[in-house]
What we know:
Blueprint: E1 13-18, H1 20-25, H2 46-52, H3 62-67, E2 71-76, E3 89-94, E4 97-98, H4 126-129, E5 135-140, E6 148-152, E7 158-162, E8 169-174
Antiparallel strand pairs: 1-8, 2-3, 4-8, 5-6, 6-7
Amino acid sequence: ILAQDETKTASLTFRGHLSPRLVMNSGTKPWLGQQTLDGGGWALSDMREWLNGEDFFGNLPIELQNGIKEVVKLSDNGYYDYQTGNPTLTKTADKIFIASAEELNALNTSYTLAGQGSPYPLFTDNESRKIGDLYWTRSTGGKYGLHSFCAIDLDGRTTTLGGGNRSGLVIYFCI
């Protein structure tokens, strides 16, 4: 249990860890948006589609599915606007999501855009973000390159990875 939601739309947030092996064996592409570009960000990513679709969410026990509340998340949409090069924030409604770098209290504005949620109180430093695997955030790393997404490394620090890399996932849902 990570936090109580003050909006009253969901009362508790839970997290779970999916190993890189499970993600790799899911048949999905790891994070990819549009041909490994970060264009569209989390909203248009294959990872979001997989987590919220029949392959993942649809295979959870029906009792759990019925208890999970849809929540609105803000994410940057990547650097797909090549004329201006400026990302904007996009709202998505998700039942299963991955945290933004900002929610993990790991925002690095040299990588990604601020405004993607308030930090969960659990995450105070690098040590509190470590899980023993490299794992994705829903923030893009577009300021670093057009094919990159923010991740948390083995030391709990923010890094960027190309969308085709295989990494673990830390998933979240609210009830």
